[in-house]
Amino acid sequence: MRYERVDDPQPRPGEVVVEVRAAGVNRRDLFVRRGVYPFPLPLPLVPGSDAAGVRRDTGEEVVVFPSLAWGERDDAPGDDFRILGGPDPGTYAELVAVPEENVFPRPAGLSWEEAASFALAGVTAYRGLFARAGLRTGETLLVLGAGSGLSTMAVSLACDAGARVLVTSSSGEKIDRTRALGAADGALYTEDDWVEQIMALTDGRGCDVVFDSVGSTWPDSLRCLRKGGRLVVLGATGGTQVGLDVRAFYFGHISMLGTMMGSPRDFVPLLDSLDRGGWRPVVDSVHPLSEVEQAHARIEGAQHFGKLVLLP
Predict the structure, then answer these.
(1) What's the pTM value of the predicted model, to 2 decimals?
(2) What is the number of structural domains in the chain?
(3) pLDDT tens for residues 173-225?
(4) Residues 140 and 224 in one domain
(5) Among 45, 70, 171, 294, who pairs with 263 as Cys (CB 3.0-4.6 Å)?
(6) DSSP output for 92-147
(7) What CA–CA distance (Å, rounded) separates 306 from 312?
């Protein structure tokens, strides 16, 4: 990555320019940087999907919604769907041009840093938990990998909805910090019997929903579910290939639900939950835009708890 001066973005018809006050960092940005996506991205490219700022033409304080051209269906995005920050120029900048339909009022009470941190991970978590898994009050949810921006938002949203939340982590400190967000308990996935620990925390019944962004953990996630439970899969940070016991899957009447990002219809209720003060994004740290590589290194080293934010 290079920190350099470029020409101001020129909005196309239907687009507006946002003066970025803060930009969020997502693990997706690391994948874009490494070039590991299965389709080519144009270079040079301005990465970054999340931002909060001021709409240049009206002066309105806004957040940027990074799902572009989702389409009219809610079960899956349309063929023109893409994510801001690859292939479209993103938010690691002082200015970003986005479709007018992708700017929403900044939620009341959030700082610039908080407002810049939640859109991508928040809508992904909201859609996975509610639009896909149908998580209900009183159900038990297991969130794998406590500490990431996505997992902290999943914990906060689920607790706000009245679910009982369990987590896994490699760090006892991170499990403790998720308790402060409302989680009931957790297990260290570095221990061989972590599945048995989760089952014990449910009195042997199993979880109603498992929220899995790791991918390689699918077999263990299925073991944590009750009969008829739902596995939400939305990432592959641990790998893209996995083997499953097919009989255990259908004997258990399990539903496996794939998801990524979300539609504007998912984003509006997410904003509503923030406006009524049900939860707040967790900001791990704030960095100058010129030090973006240090921010990426913090994520790569799993040192963070919550979201990292850049200030132009």
Answers:
(1) 0.96
(2) 2
(3) 999 999 999 999 999 999 999 999 999 999 999 999 999 999 999 999 999 99
(4) yes
(5) 70
(6) SSSEEEEEGGGEEEPPTT--HHHHTTSHHHHHHHHIIIIIIS---TT-EEEESSTT
(7) 20
